[in-house]
């Protein structure tokens, strides 16, 4: 498997010039061309890159917002910490900055955790690529920098900890700021914290979870940048996880067919609703409550409207690690 991934990725990496990218049915837009020129995005991924955040592009006049470098132009808020959340600790060779997530007040009810994202109850039209979508991928760099999971700030029990550690997700079309269409996170499965991909095809219906078998602290060691990816195929009813470009062994948590795709003719898509936003480093990006904070850093977060291939995940990892 490693040799096949490497061969495919290296073959594509040898074609990083603009002329070598396969011709598109429609001309690429200027943002896509700019991304390819920067060399931060593996060539075959650029066309499907709906949103991309490297935390080096504050919105002019509002440094508490981060500009989307993907095709959708969906800017996000740096919640509670604002510009101070950008820290000089890039995850990959061309990166200079990352975003710090943090629980601020662990011992009392509060609403001050550092997290990021956006929320709109009618849905976010710029995220329309995830409306009635067949596949999604979430990828990015993550670094544990403190206590995880965090104490439950809404509990008077000092031994009560949150049951999840928030990484990055696309909200569902009926979300209250927590429920998702696609999520890369750490969640307790039968009492054991695990790295997971969690997907929901139909708003309000059951989600499915694909959980990594390996211990989460070996997958995400303290103070070490790690590249994680999760893919969601709503048509086939499948998900996958990757660490540093390579597949992670795992298992589906719910038996049966929670997405309702096995006994009905395809193709199958998610609900035809715009997501209500994106959440990063915890739930409730509208900042009306706290949930599942992550004491960690984030860099190069990518949200794509297809399930990328294993060799593309490997290619993105190798490109980020080795491109000057």
Please estimate the helix content: 10-25%
Q: The biggest beta sheet, please?
A: 10 strands, antiparallel
Number of helices: 4
Structural class: mainly beta
Number-wise, the strands total 18
Distance between the termini: 27 Å
Q: Low-confidence stretches at least 5 residues in length (pLDDT < 50)? A: 14-28
Q: Major sheet: order of its strands?
A: 2-3-4-7-17-9-10-11-12-16
- Which H/E pattern describes the elements? HHEEEEEEEEEEEEHEEEEEEH
Key descriptive features of the protein:
about 325 residues; globular; 4 helices; mainly beta
Short summary of the structure?
The chain is mainly beta. The protein has helices at residues 2-13, 30-38, 216-219, 310-322, and strands at 49-53, 58-59, 62-66, 76-79, 86-87, 98-101, 115-119, 135-144, 164-171, 180-189, 192-200, 207-212, 226-233, 238-243, 246-247, 250-252, 277-280, 296-304.
């Amino acid at each position: 498997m490693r040799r096949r991934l490497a061969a495919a990725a290296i073959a594509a990496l040898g074609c990083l010039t603009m002329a070598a990218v396969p011709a598109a049915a429609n001309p690429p837009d200027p943002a896509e061309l700019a991304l390819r020129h920067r060399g931060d995005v593996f060539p075959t991924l650029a066309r499907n890159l709906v949103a991309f955040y490297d935390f080096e592009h504050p919105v002019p006049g509002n440094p508490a917002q981060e500009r989307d470098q993907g095709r959708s132009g969906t800017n996000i808020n740096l919640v509670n910490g604002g510009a101070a959340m950008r820290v000089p600790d890039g995850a990959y060779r061309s990166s200079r900055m990352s975003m710090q997530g943090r629980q601020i007040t662990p011992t009392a009810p509060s609403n001050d955790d550092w997290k990021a994202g956006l929320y709109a109850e009618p849905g976010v039209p710029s995220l329309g690529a995830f409306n009635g979508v067949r596949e999604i991928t979430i990828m990015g760099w993550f670094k544990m920098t403190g206590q995880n999971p965090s104490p439950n700030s809404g509990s008077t029990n000092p031994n009560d900890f949150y049951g999840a550690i928030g990484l990055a997700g696309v909200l569902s079309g009926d979300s209250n700021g927590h429920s998702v269409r696609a999520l890369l996170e750490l969640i307790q499965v039968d009492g054991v914290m695990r790295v997971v991909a969690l997907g929901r095809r139909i708003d309000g219906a059951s989600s499915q979870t694909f959980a990594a078998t390996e211990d989460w602290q070996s997958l995400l060691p303290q103070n070490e940048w790690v590249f994680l990816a999760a893919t969601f195929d709503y048509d086939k009813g499948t998900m996958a996880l990757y660490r540093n470009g390579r597949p992670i062994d795992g298992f589906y948590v719910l038996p049966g067919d929670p997405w309702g795709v096995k006994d009905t003719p395809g193709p199958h898509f998610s609900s035809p609703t715009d997501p209500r936003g994106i959440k990063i480093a915890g739930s409730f990006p509208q900042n009306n409550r706290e949930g599942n904070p992550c004491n960690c850093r984030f860099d190069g977060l990518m949200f794509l409207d297809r399930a990328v291939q294993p060799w593309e995940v490997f290619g993105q990892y190798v490109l980020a690690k080795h491109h000057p």
